[in-house]
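ESCALATION

Customer reports they have been waiting on this structure for their group meeting. Please prioritize. Original submission:
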Amino acid sequence: MAGWEDELERWLMPFLDRLGHKTRQRMCPLYIAGLIGPGDRKSVQPMAERLATGNYDQLHHFIADGVWDATPLEAELLNQADRLVGGRDAVLVIDDTSLPKKGERSIGVAAQYASALGKTANCQTLVSLTLARGEVPVMVALRLFLPDNWTSDVSRLKRARVPVEHRTPRSKPEIALAEIDRAMAANVRFGCVLADAGYGLSAPFRQGLTERGLAWAVGIPRHLKVYPVDVKLIWPITKVRGKPRKHHVPDILSIAAEQMLASAKWKAVSWRSGTKGRLKARFAALRVRTADGPPQRIWDKGQQHLPGDEAWLIGEQRASGEKKYYLANLPAATDLRTLAATIKARWICEQAHQQLKEELGLDHFEGRSWQGLHRHALMTMIAYAFLQHRRLAHAGRKKKNQRASASANHARRTSRHRRSHPSAAVSAVPILPKANS
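Update from on-call: job pushed to the front of the queue and completed.
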């Protein structure tokens, strides 16, 4: 990490140009350096003390109270992330991460499921977007989810200085789609959107991705209903005279995903190498129709959703015996290993969440306002992108040195080979022009 402070200043120039004001241009590198540097606590006061700047008030004002728009910096983060890891083989991972909190005044705090703790707890929840290629993730969005007990209390929203446009209730999938639109508007390149069952169970979320022309692979609950791929819509035949039916019904009822795959052929699949060898599990996949069309009364079964789009239904059986289920709109010709590798690429966002918290203090912000929390989260993402920039640059230099070393070794071997063969040695001598007599 030697010399990273000077490199940080250079790398941040596009961000600082967008900040404009000289004081902000001075505070931004200081704040990010505080996040990257040593120290267990990454809130404003201990960072100011470690930086020995005596600028606690200015640093606090920059992150919590200053009048400046974060949108240009968010746009530059998308640009830098795309430059680092964007491409057709990149994935955009949708997830959320929880920040455990005490009290009830910090923006968005409520008793809700905390993924970091695996239980319901008092916390804030941030919807996250991670752009990743291979094993290199870059976090590009962190947006706070507001529970009902916040969006229904106008005075509470005002005290936390929540912008008017964010005061209406929005589900996590709705927030995710809005952030995906922002990434697409910035021309961020990726090949597939991935998400866990918390998002995949939402038919509007899956449909929203399809409407945007995106490839996707998402987790689903085992009980989510699907139809066989050859389901047909027919006119219902009734024995009772009356008005003729106006709507078609499917010729077979939808069934749960786990039931659909119960008799499928499961195969062992390895999708990549891990620290302990090849990663493997058993997978099965079938083409199905999603049960997320318009609701329709079907015979005496009440309201059910009609067949929707065709998709892959994928099952995963882990070594522990646990089974997970997924839907993907990838092409029908996609092989099982590609389906498995695509689904399992989602793990990288969990690594990013952990590193942002443990190394960069994502969950250390002590303010209570909407603006302060989002600015702090933005600074942690910029710091993380810088560290990934250094990681990739180091890997590139190492690869270049390895190529140079291999080339030199090859040249030495060739030279030894020529010296051991007289004819080769002769042919290697350059032919010089004859001197004038």
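Sent to customer with the following note: Confidence is low (pLDDT under 50) at residues 417-437.
Escalation resolved.
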